[in-house]
């Protein structure tokens, strides 16, 4: 895997992934930025959410769960000192679908946390306390 981060100006950078996608990163005005892009640490948090969501949805599809919506709400705490590393991250999955089986969703979330999500497992190994939970919503009867 490769990527490039190129300085644009001020505290703005353009990240380019090896797969050909770009994202703007910027800082807040008080640190010389113009607030025109996501912060680098926010991007890291989004990466954890994306990685785990990818796993959970793939496993639910394989177990033939009829998912109509899936989101993960992330909350994180950072150290008060420099470096202001993440100390805690919580992932709260909200899964909506038709006749979802709670045990299947629980297992998908657990497997992502314990075995498949490289991003959260890597941060956990570095000392970040990572927790997960979920809630289910019924999308109603299939038509």
From TrEMBL:
<dbReference type="InterPro" id="IPR003718">
    <property type="entry name" value="OsmC/Ohr_fam"/>
</dbReference>
<protein>
    <submittedName>
        <fullName>OsmC family protein</fullName>
    </submittedName>
</protein>
<dbReference type="InterPro" id="IPR015946">
    <property type="entry name" value="KH_dom-like_a/b"/>
</dbReference>
<dbReference type="Pfam" id="PF02566">
    <property type="entry name" value="OsmC"/>
</dbReference>
<dbReference type="InterPro" id="IPR036102">
    <property type="entry name" value="OsmC/Ohrsf"/>
</dbReference>
């Amino acid at each position: 895997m490769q990527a490039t981060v190129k300085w644009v100006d001020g505290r703005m950078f353009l990240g380019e992934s090896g797969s050909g996608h770009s994202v703007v990163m910027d800082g807040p005005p008080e640190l010389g930025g113009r607030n025109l892009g996501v912060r680098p640490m926010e991007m890291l948090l989004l990466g954890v959410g994306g990685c785990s969501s990818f796993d959970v949805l793939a496993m639910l599809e394989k177990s033939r769960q009829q998912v109509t919506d899936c989101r993960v709400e992330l909350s994180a705490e950072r150290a008060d000192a420099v470096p202001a590393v993440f100390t805690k991250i919580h992932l709260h999955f909200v899964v909506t679908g038709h006749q979802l089986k709670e045990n299947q969703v629980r297992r998908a979330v657990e497997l992502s946390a314990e075995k498949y999500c490289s991003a959260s497992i890597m941060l956990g190994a570095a000392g970040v306390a990572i927790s997960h939970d979920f809630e289910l919503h019924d999308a109603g009867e299939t038509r």
